[in-house]
Amino acid sequence: MRTGFEKAEFVRRLERVGLDREQAEEHIAVLRDIAADNLVTKRDLARLDDRFISLEQRMTIKFGVMIGGAVGLLAALVKILGG
């Protein structure tokens, strides 16, 4: 997984502030592990988008059924009470 930083540049920067190469590489490994566990990928976003579309469709259908039921109930009440 590409995390947006170059390992060699990161190692140089850490060495510049006093870390040895082994420590610098361990920092990189930790950051990559964190990034792999916590960053969202384009694939994750696409799946989430698909789930939202599906949810929206189900909610639209349920709302339509509720409106249809309410209209039917109202029509029955008008017929019974106003009839």
UniProtKB/TrEMBL annotation:
The transmembrane segments are 61-81
Keyword list (alphabetical) reads: Membrane, Transmembrane, Transmembrane helix
Instruction: Write down the species.
Output: Parvularcula maris
Q: What name does UniProt use for this protein?
A: CCDC90 family protein
Organism superkingdom: Bacteria
